[in-house]
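Single Protein Entry

Contents — chain, fold
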Amino acid sequence: MTGATGEIANLVKEYSCGTGIKPGDDHAMAQAIGALSRDRARCDTMGRNARIMLDAKFTRRRQLETWSTLLGRIAAA
């Protein structure tokens, strides 16, 4: 991660499934693209890690439960 912050950046870092770049940091973006274009094994690993993250954090059932809870709170308010 190259200085990126926020919920998505934290997940990417936690699961080692990508590269975070601060908005507007063109040099870091070019460096990251170049590095990834030369490292197929790293890209494959990131892809597998991303699938693990999605299965752990963003299943349809989990998202429906999250929305149901939120709508229930709104309805109760």
Remarks:
- The helical segments are 7-15, 26-37, 40-57, 60-76.
- The mean pLDDT is 91.
- The CA atoms of residues 58 and 73 lie 21 Å apart.
- The chain is about 75% helix and 0% strand.
